[in-house]
Amino acid sequence: MAERGFETEVIKKEKKNNYALACSFIASFISILMGYDTGVMSGAMLFIQEDLKVSDAQIQVLAGILNACALVGSLTAGRISDLIGRRYTIVVGAAIFLVGSVLMGLGLNFAMLMSGRCIAGVGVGYALMIAPVYSAEISSPSSRGFLSSLPEICINLGILSGYLANFAFGKLPLIYGWRAMLGFASIPSVFLAASVLMMPESPRWLVMQGRLKDARDILLRVSNSKEEADERLGEMKATVGIDKECAADVVAVTSKHHGEGVWREILQPTPAVRRVLIATVGIHVFQHATGIEAVVLYSPRIFKKAGLVTKEQQFLATIAVGVFKTVFILLAILLVDRVGRRKMLLGSLTGMIASLVGLGAVLTVVERSEQRLVWAEVLCVVFVLSFVSSFSSGLGPVTWVYCSEIFPLRLRAQGASLGVAINRLMNSAMSMSFISLYTAITIGGAFFLFAGIGIFAWVFYYTCCPETKGRALEDDMMEVFTRPGDKKPEQN
């Protein structure tokens, strides 16, 4: 282990590979589309409700249906990516999102709008599953946290773009404004599908197919040296049961590495894999159960409850939310490979809990007051900004980094799909229930509830999520989830 520590220190001093960075960013661009659709809907809902005369219940369904339908995309994307490769799976996701965006942009009636959002949701499921997996598989241990965080920064850039689109297109006539907001996402979808064709395939997927020469050629481009490329290729060969010294260009690989039997291994796991599954489920559940949807999707309503009455005031405050989210996610991805995943999760949750308690208290005071409280309006904005800053500095990006790296290679794509499915289910549940929740227990009570859930989340992360910083994906990632007395798992 001392020797491994020395190797890790050496790797940390190497520069990040710019080609791997460019490939990861293009792959992560699909997450911008997902973020845009989330952000733009927060403002578009106000205009849709006014134009189409729909109820609060219909608006809740419209907000959450995207993520309910993302379940379909996330559960199928893992198997699809094992069959056709990570790169073409991104193209499929972008094409699906394009169709959904066009339908939403037309939006002749509520049914068409819902259909478009459902189709776009399937594309979102593909995006959330494939972008972090591709980024993790193309990067070296020294930069994996940074590159695997790119999808999250792209989501936040997309959310900020959506908020800006609300402000810009909101000045158009009502009949055109919200349609322009939703339809605009179709333009970058075409750009993404074309750009992805210039990217290399994941070298780990190529090794799973036995295409060793193709994998080595790509590793030479995404690694910092020939020695690093050879070492990574050797680890990948060992993972799928190929002799490290094998010099053939193409070899046959056993079927289990093409994705068959993976769900059986997930449903009947070894003790170490069971702990990986518990960590994955818990981290995705708590990412959303702590209230991020309430703030991102419904921030205009929150600010209205606090006393900001005009749409322009609400949208400007919401744009500030997007700016803070983006700035702090940038800070997080610069620190994740230095500070470590676990510390960032725990620190992030501590800030979120404090912000939620403050927000709940301020909104409770406002609800019980018959006068306008300027200080409460200011504090509401401050606590919302501190909440999204805390979320974006840890829980937001680290969830995707952590869950894309802890599964062994043979389980990674479909394990990540399972995680995304849970993530979207929670997102959908929170999106579709927030208005009903704060109607039932007051808006202040809702944020106190989220704070309580945050305390449970902190305990979970402390006890069930060991540190993975600096671990190689192939050879020793599972060691952190293996305990004395466990039956030795298969080669992973």
From TrEMBL:
It is a multi-pass membrane protein. One of its GO terms (cellular component) is membrane. Coiled coil: none annotated. Belongs to the major facilitator superfamily. Sugar transporter (TC 2.A.1.1) family. Keywords: Membrane, Sugar transport, Symport, Transmembrane, Transmembrane helix, Transport. Its main location: membrane. The chain crosses the membrane at residues 19-37, 57-76, 88-108, 114-134, 146-169, 175-199, 315-336, 348-366, 373-392, 435-461. It is found in: Membrane. Residues 23-469 form the Major facilitator superfamily (MFS) profile domain. Pfam families: Sugar_tr. The keyword Zinc does not apply. InterPro entries: MFS_dom, MFS_sugar_transport-like, MFS_trans_sf, STP/PLT_plant, Sugar/inositol_transpt, Sugar_transporter_CS. One of its GO terms (molecular function) is carbohydrate transmembrane transporter activity. This is Major facilitator superfamily (MFS) profile domain-containing protein.
